[in-house]
Design brief:
The chain is an alpha/beta fold and about 350 residues long. Helix content is about 35%, strand content about 25%. It has a nine-stranded mixed β-sheet. Strands 3-2-1-4-5-6 form a six-stranded parallel β-sheet, with helices on both faces. Strand 9 and strand 10 form a beta hairpin. The relative contact order is 0.15.
Amino acid sequence: MSKSSTKISVACVGAGYFSRFHYEAWARMENVSLVASVNRDIEGAKATGLPAFNSLEVMLETIKPDLLDIITPPITHFEYIKKAITFGVKAIICQKPFCNNIEEAKKAARLGEEAGIPIIVHENFRFQPWYRIMKEEINKGTLGDIHQLTFRLRTGDGQGPKAYLERQPYFQEMKKFLIHETGVHWVDTFRYLFGKPISVYADLRQMNPYIAGEDCGYFIMEFEGGKRALFDANRHLDHKAENCRTTLGECLLEGTKGTITLYGNGKLKLREFGSQDYITLLKVKNWPGFAGDCVYNLQSHVISGLLTDGKFENSASDYLYVLELEDAIYKSASKGSKVGV
């Protein structure tokens, strides 16, 4: 990608529920030109107001975009990546869960490396502003020696036979659900905050008989120096927030010099050890886009990398480690014991 480019042309494939956050974020970027939408049902593509196609191949041949944004289910990812590389795109963003399985993901990452085309997995939770601030405070030593991070997922959308049908009905059919679809966000966020874990332990269960996969449970990641990160998830229960999808839950980051608390409205507060008072690190804000505008933040990060230093968080080859951790969590749950990673 030429550093002198003033506009990067972006085409999107997929026009489902979550794609609206992608399109809206791209539309806000001055150095991006949205040039096409592809969807199997072309009416969905037309609804974006962009040149519409129901064939990715025809679009790639006709429009020749710089960047392809893949916003479709995992079953399509590998073939779409292969086609995009064949038609000479300069970069690819691909939604998670990334590919059908880790073997396919490895093939996709290798294709990108061999072609010299960056593939970035759209794993956006690490780009939520509260986690970026937590990382800054960890790096500054504000909390002293970190002991534990606890995230309590309480989405409040998993009860009964109509769970998920209004927004993402395919959730009901996923045989691996809580971790593969949702918990993987915190698998990546925990490693962003603490680095690579040395072991995982998981206890997963299915509470809603109307769905195919697990929807409640825990996993604990063990890190060097005795640190632990706990993911405590229950999609049946909620947390105190006008919109439970702002943060999807609540979080504590605890160290010897203080504790940072993330509230369900996106507020972030620091309490110094021994104090009864709080310092506000992040005020409540009416964020545009999704969950702290993390879709925009990720996509802006990719554009910045293309126009400057070529460095990207969550490249496909780097993200393979997240998929390995996900497999280790499911292995631990099936064995009922800690698994080294």
